[in-house]
Write a structure and sequence with these properties.
GO terms for molecular function: transmembrane transporter activity. The protein is an alpha+beta fold and about 800 residues long. The chain contains 26 helices and 24 strands. Strands 1, 2, 3, 4, 5, 6, 7, 8, 9, 10, 11, 12 and 13 form a 13-stranded mixed beta sheet that branches. Strands 16-17-22-19-21-20 form a six-stranded mixed β-barrel. α16 packs antiparallel against α25.
Length: about 800
């Protein structure tokens, strides 16, 4: 019996090649989307599932308010870890994780006896300072050394196997123990242990571990602010594992007591508060409120959006299959009648048609498996690093694919199977299966399916246009500074004071350079640099403000305007300040001129305000403009405005080559890593750019599948109205008249879909835009353009069949009358 089902399915597939290919194509799109999104979701939701007792592991995070502005930080004051170990009960393990300072990387020199020039590895990432308890919290397999003693003493380091092979490629693990490694020319550590690399999806990405005790024995004691409770650095993270039966609320209460003990001003009023909270480990990978240094956050709403896209594409593919199958039902009617006459039961026919659907779905699934690796490469920007596709090593993917194939086969094939198996032999053998009476019986279902397809398509079109409109607004609105034609780079740490002026003089002498400056961060950066600043009239106004610094040319490079006062004077130390207009208003000055000459307290030192600058966006459009101060001093960040480029980009290429030459003359062993500043601004919206790109693809696929479904409904309708069309032509109807008659109903369906989709899309986009402090408007023309575009696409799709039907010879349709 099953062999007969297979043979029949294959014959039907081969006999109706066009319909079969369209069905396979539609299902392949839906199944491929579902498979890729399943891989992404499984990867993201499998994070941190291997740690023993993970339900008792928490990251300590900080919630604060400064003058009513909320601040959420994954970093905490550095002395908190020691205080928890000594004063908090119910905690089994306390694990501080201090990221390597600077840009999170280190210059590593491998000390080898008898060599004048040791091997140097530039910008090594994922180096942390931590204690022995780390390896009980995050278990590694030990190759050499032990978790109890390897990080006990100062100036010890544990390496992962990959890092050990990089530094000591010719030595065995036992021979590496005792070797020395130098970090940034100022800390030398001895290798005390080697562990295997983690083969897990985890937020703990470190591969090189320096003993936490090293900090207390070096200048890092001050750099990490190990004794400061009222401030913290982004490098300072802390994890705890509660004891069996421990309670997170009780531990948080003890942390509150610690904070009140060591920072009495932490909660001085309702607008200025601070508190510690325990963030569960399973929330670390998903909570963007607490984005740790160098940490990759998976956005749950985006994942849910991907689920929705996969579900929509699968649903549309199933609807498309249903419409096309029922549209082609006339070709199977006599076959069904004969089978029933010969004794086939309806149950047997249902299984036969479900088997045919399963056959087509299996073909679509095989095609999906073949193209999935290509899709993963094509959509690399959406794919988490480390995600791969290998059916031999991922049996859960095979299980998912089998379940998906069965599910899609059942959903797609059940309705056509019930309809086709329900034909009465007497009617179909008399060619009466497609009279108007029988057609109207199920017409509303097919129309509803078609409307649902176009609702989804219309929703995606509106969404794509609005996301693109917001991105365009973010990139092209007035940011308060210039970003075009500017390049930035950073010199090696702790060298600015020695070589900075020499390099800036050489750059300013280059003819293609308009002006150059050195200082700190550019006006807008993805990260934030804050400092506690006080203004001391009564009552005192204390705020956490963004800081920038640079020489006087900084304002010329970026075209930042002064509202009052003057620019800073050249200096290597902080002597005077410029504040932005937002901070001036926070301090209570009604006019910018009123702030000139006032004193601000920074780190215990009083500095005068010499100017008030125009507000500029110091972060992305997601964030409101915050209080900001500009300090007049130099630094290791270089900002260079180039002269207007020539056609072909020759002038800028020449300028960059000369700047690189000047850089290499001073730093011959360092890499010249520069970037255009407008690229930095664009990177703020990388997530939105990826969303827009994904929406464009989803929109295109949705429109394609929807039009296939519409084409199926048109073909079905034309089959049922073929004689009517013939009679109209005989009575003198023109081609245009017949096309309009056939198209009117379908255009009404598309318009109905727009009426349903428009308010849904408006609500979804409105909610999405709330994430932006500065956002574009919900323009009416977006809805008009998207609706008109969908109507035009539908009209073109309809014309393919309606014109063909209207120009057909009426004799062929009436010869049986």
């Amino acid at each position: 019996m099953f062999k007969n089902y297979f043979i029949t399915a294959f014959r039907n597939f081969w006999r109706n090649k066009i319909f079969s290919i369209i069905n396979v194509l539609g299902l392949s799109i839906g199944i491929s989307a579902a498979l890729v999104i399943f891989l992404i979701a499984y990867y993201e939701f499998s994070y941190d599932k291997f740690e023993p007792g993970r339900d008792r592991i928490y990251r300590v995070v900080l919630d604060a308010k400064f003058n009513g502005d909320e601040v959420h930080s994954a970093a905490v004051p550095a002395p908190l870890s020691g205080a928890i170990q000594n004063e908090v009960t119910g905690v089994e393990q306390t694990v501080p994780i201090m990221q390597f300072q600077g840009d999170g990387t280190a210059k590593v020199s491998v000390v080898k006896e008898g060599t004048d020039k040791p091997p140097v590895f530039k910008k090594q990432p994922d180096i942390v300072y931590t204690n022995p308890q780390y390896f009980y919290l995050v278990p590694h397999k030990w190759i050499a050394g032990s978790p109890k003693s390897s990080l006990q003493d100062p100036f010890n380091v544990v390496l992962t196997e990959s890092r050990a092979k990089l530094y000591f490629p010719s030595l065995s693990a036992s021979d590496i123990i005792g070797r020395q490694i130098n970090y940034n020319d100022d800390i030398t550590a001895t290798v005390s242990g080697i562990v295997q690399d983690l083969n897990e999806h985890t937020s703990f990405t470190a591969v090189e571990f320096i003993s936490f005790a090293t900090i207390a024995k070096t200048h890092l004691q001050d750099k990490f602010m190990m004794n400061v409770w009222n401030d913290w650095m982004a490098y300072s993270n802390l994890y705890v594992k509660l004891a069996e039966g421990g309670n997170a609320q009780q531990t948080e209460a003890q942390l509150k007591m610690l904070l009140n003990k060591y920072n009495k001003d932490a909660n001085k009023d309702a607008a200025n508060t601070m508190s510690f909270r325990l963030q569960p480990l399973n929330d670390v990978h998903f909570n963007s409120l607490y984005n740790g240094f160098g940490q990759r956050i998976a956005h749950k709403p985006t994942l849910y959006g991907l689920f929705a896209i996969a579900a929509f594409l699968l649903l549309l593919a199933c609807i498309n299959f249903i419409n096309l199958t029922t549209a082609n039902a006339s070709q199977r009617a006599k076959e069904i009648g004969i089978r029933k006459t010969m004794g086939s039961s309806r149950k047997q026919l249902v299984f036969q048609f479900l088997g045919e659907t399963f056959f087509i779905t299996v073909i679509a699934s095989v095609i999906s498996v073949v193209i999935t690796p290509l899709l993963l490469q094509f959509f690399a920007d959406f794919i988490p690093p480390g995600l791969r596709f290998d059916l031999q090593e991922q049996p859960y993917v095979v299980v998912f694919l089998c379940m998906l194939t069965v599910f899609v086969s059942f959903i797609s094939g059940l309705y056509p199977a019930l309809i086709l198996s329900g034909y009465k032999p007497v009617i179909v053998l008399k060619n009466q299966a497609f009279t108007n009476g029988s057609e109207t019986r199920h017409a509303w279902i097919r129309k509803a399916l078609t409307v649902s397809q176009f609702v989804v398509a219309q929703f995606f079109i509106i969404g794509t246009m609005m996301v693109s409109k917001q991105i365009n607004y973010s990139l092209n609105t007035d940011l308060g500074f210039n970003k075009e034609g500017i390049i930035t780079f950073v010199t090696p740490r702790d060298t600015a004071a020695v070589h900075g002026q020499q390099l800036i003089n050489a750059i300013n002498a280059i003819p293609e350079v308009e002006v150059a400056s050195r200082g700190f961060l550019s006006p807008a950066e993805e990260g934030a640099a804050f400092s506690n600043v006080s203004y001391t009239p009564k009552p005192e106004i204390k705020a956490q403000v963004q800081i920038r610094w640079g020489d006087p040319n900084y304002f010329k490079v970026y075209g930042i305007k002064l509202l009052a006062g003057r620019n800073v004077e050249p200096s290597d130390t902080i002597k005077e300040l410029i504040i932005n207009n937002t901070y001036a208003k926070l301090l209570g000055f009604q006019e910018p001129e009123d702030a000139i000459g006032k004193q601000l307290d920074i780190s215990g030192k009083s500095k005068p305000i010499v100017g008030v600058m125009h507000d500029f966006h110091d972060q992305s459009m997601h964030t409101p403009i915050t209080p900001l101060i500009f300090e007049g001093r130099t630094g290791g960040f270089f900002h260079i405005r180039l002269k207007p480029n020539t056609p072909g980009g020759i002038m800028w290429q020449t300028a960059i080559a000369k700047i690189q030459k000047a850089f290499k003359q001073i730093y011959p062993d360092e890499d010249f890593d520069y970037k255009f500043y407008d690229d930095t601004i664009a990177s703020f919206y990388a997530s939105e750019q990826r969303t827009a790109s994904l929406l464009k693809w989803a929109t295109g696929l949705t429109i394609f599948i929807s039009c296939l479904g519409l084409l199926g409904l048109v073909m079905y309708t034309i089959n049922t109205r073929r004689k009517e069309i013939g009679i109209r032509k005989v009575l003198g109807a023109s081609v245009a008249n017949i096309v309009s008659v056939l198209s009117a109903d379908f255009m009404q369906l598309v318009f109905l879909a727009f009426v349903i989709a428009a308010p849904l899309a408006w609500w979804a986009i409105y909610e999405w835009l709330q994430d932006y402090a500065y956002r574009t408007t919900m323009s009416w023309w977006v809805f008009i353009v998207s609706g008109s575009a969908m109507l035009l696409i539908a009209l073109i799709t309809l014309s393919i069949q309606t014109i063909k039907a209207a120009t057909a010879n009426p004799v062929k349709s009436l010869r049986t009358e």
